[in-house]
Amino acid sequence: MLTFVAQRIVKGVVVLLAIIVLNFFLIRLAPGDPAVVMAGEAGASDPLFVAQLREKFSLDRPLPEQLFKYVKGVAQLDLGFSFRQQVPVAKLIADRLGATLLLTLTAFGISLALGVLFGTLAARFAGSWADSAITVAALIFYATPLFWVALMAILLFSVYLGWLPSFGYETVGANYTGLEHVLDVGAHLIMPAMTIGLFFMATYTRMTRASMLEVQRLDFVKTARAKGLRNSVIQRRHVLRNALLPVVTLAGVHSGTLIGGAVLTETVFAWPGIGRLMYEALLQRDYNLLLGVFVVCSAMVLIFNLITDLVYRLVDPRIEFAS
Amino acid sequence: MLKQIALGLMLSCCAVTMVNAQTPKLGGTINAVIQPEPPGLMLALVQNGPTQMVSGNIYEGLLRYDKKLNPLPGLAESWTVSPDSKVYTFKLKPGVTWHDGKPFTSADVLFSTEMLKQTHARARNNLSKVEKIEAPDDLTVVFTLKEPFGPFLGIFEVGSMPMIPKHIYEGTDYKTNPANNKPIGTGPFMFKEWQKGSFIRLVKNPNYHEKGKPYIDEIYWQVIPDAAARSVAYETHKVDVLPGGSVENFDVPRLSKLPNTCVTGDGWEFFSPLAWLWLNNRSGPTSNKLVRQAIMYAIDRNFAKDVIWNGLGKVATGPSASTIKFYTDDVKKYPFDPAKAKALLKEAGYKGEKIRLQPLPYGETWQRWGEAVKQNLIDVGFNIETIATDVAGSNERIGNWDYDIAFTYLYQYGDPALGVGRNYVSSAIAKGQQFNNVEGYSNPEVDKLFADGAVATPDSKRKEIYEKAQKILVEDVPVAWLLELQFPTITNCKIKNLITTAIGVNDGFRDAWIDQ
């Protein structure tokens, strides 16, 4: 297993390098550079001002030189300097990564747990009213745009009912500590996490239901029944365990897109995460920051993929680690 | 009758005393929206809108300006001008200290002007007429000009010329000075904390030079990236102040009707944002004056004001906004007249060549305006193609003259010599930059008028010159003027005295207090 992990890490580094080089050039294909954006915002510019900015950001250097410098930096775990915010990129990302991970992992956890639960229930009571209710709800959440769900949730829970805060990570200026702080962050977390989670929950519900119904028809389940096993044991040990494999595959793929999917949610709910950081960096052509976020996101996708492969093994011991 | 007048007088007296009796209360926190998040707070290095809004509390300028743009004392408590209008002597306020306790002196003023000339494009331009600056003593600064410069007393506001502490910046690399992340000024509030992506926190300066001020204890500037979420934050009382432009315009009427909500359009007199369409005077159909005039007749600007901007603002008559000096409306008028536009197009020989229209990527209001103008132009026979870009792309295209018609809005800075001339004089044609003469208009007569207007004395002579310039420009239509924009500030009514000068919220919360 160790050799497997080591091999995957080496492959990951190569992939990461390819991603960096590709992104480096892709970003520069967009019209306008950071100097143009900043000069535009200042409301006045003269040639000296723009030239100073370009020099300051090393944008006046040849592209290969800029690329070499950047890759060299990343190899030494230095993600460079944000042109715009005048802060090391690594610090900006580190400050925001926690918030994004809290949001996306909560959403991921909720959606996976509830999705498998509802999917199992729907399969167990296939054809009943409960099955119909779950399937219809899943279909609605699957088809509804995220931002609309978010805005409706804000209208209902913040504006009309006043139960939940509509934006931010915590109550600014309240200076809560201990349990109060945890509850405060939790209250801020519910709506954004549910907004992201609902879509994925719907997916897992549908996947689990279909997969279980399929497994239920297989011969080994019939054998288990013939042996006289209790139905709950059959459902749990024989059906669910086998039905989970496609769900794990799907979840593995999703884990990578969770961060990208957070851009919209983080913007609507003013959640201080890296999805928003990435979006703002893109609009402001803050090259180093944007590249930095890409690098971190790519690294996380690679890590999640590795974890998925390890989870396969746990769910289904028949799967061997290819060496 | 007499009795009634007497009663009225008495009532008005009482009303006045009642207002005075409302003495400011101490304490409290103000939550305000800041959008987008500023890239930094060091006002000498970064001058974008959000930076000015937050940093106006931290830094100060030598002068402030009332809503009629008359100078008020700031860090300078008095000033005199020599009879030949070339020597300006400022007396600084004694007893002013920086946030770290060091005294503020004339040496800081000298240093600030030197530093700003290197880092601040607008200040560099504003100071170009200055021959020398001297400090005969700690509290006196003397500016000697090469020639009289009409708008000179108008360049000392905090955003145009913030005072920077010499003892912290002298001899350092300005761009990497650690103080940039913990700005130190003389202002009523001190920088305390910045959680990137969430909020910026300022706290009261206990040693502020105006005794008793500021009244409030702290300000939280909350970063909320989504416009709808900003409206909700106000509705749910999480923020008390929505500075001009922080919510979409179509939300303004709804928010204004909420209980305990006060709305004011004041505080933009110095900037007087004026929206227009850049028209490419160099090439394509828009290089023909008749086509440009046709565009002016074709656009229903009253519709845009009433429907897209919800009745806010004013239809522009020419290159100057009505709120700045030497404005005149005695110019050629362009009412909405599609028939006349069609006739002009025919006369110009326009054959349906494709024209690229670039809306401003600043949110939904601007997108809708782009659609409305496109429709107006199509209705009179133009062949319009809309170009969609983001801010960086839009700036790049405009700066490189790669457009036919493009939306924009620019600040006027109170005086035609500061905020108007730069868009029309030939010397301001420079590829790669925005907000100069991007349209490529060149008229020696206009060049001369703006050159003379800047140095003429007295003001009556300047008025004559600028009125003539306005007449010529409106006839030539180098750009198509649309609206004098209004960005209302929406506040909870418990916040009093927030906007007192011509730069509004940007002048800091020094006079604001909360009626709790």
Automatic annotation (TrEMBL), chain A:
It comes from Rhodopseudomonas palustris. It holds the Pfam family BPD_transp_1. The lineage of its organism: Bacteria, Pseudomonadati, Pseudomonadota, Alphaproteobacteria, Hyphomicrobiales. Keywords: Cell membrane, Membrane, Transmembrane, Transmembrane helix, Transport. Residues 97-312 form the ABC transmembrane type-1 domain. It is a multi-pass membrane protein. GO terms for biological process: transmembrane transport. The chain crosses the membrane at residues 12-30, 101-127, 139-165, 185-204, 243-269, 289-312. CDD domains: TM_PBP2 (cd06261). InterPro entries: BPD_transp_1_N (IPR045621), MetI-like (IPR000515), MetI-like_sf (IPR035906). Its main location: membrane. PROSITE patterns: ABC_TM1. SUPFAM superfamilies: MetI-like. Belongs to the binding-protein-dependent transport system permease family. This is ABC transporter permease. It is found in: Cell membrane. The keyword Iron does not apply. One of its GO terms (cellular component) is plasma membrane.
TrEMBL record, chain B:
InterPro entries: Peptide/Ni-bd, SBP_5, SBP_5_dom. Residues 1-21 form the signal peptide. This is Peptide ABC transporter substrate-binding protein. Belongs to the bacterial solute-binding protein 5 family. The keyword Signal applies. Residues 71-419 form the Solute-binding protein family domain. GO terms for biological process: peptide transport. One of its GO terms (molecular function) is peptide transmembrane transporter activity. PANTHER family: D,D-DIPEPTIDE-BINDING PERIPLASMIC PROTEIN DDPA-RELATED, PERIPLASMIC BINDING COMPONENT OF ABC TRANSPORTER. The keyword Membrane does not apply. One of its GO terms (cellular component) is outer membrane-bounded periplasmic space. It is found in: Periplasm. Keywords: Signal.
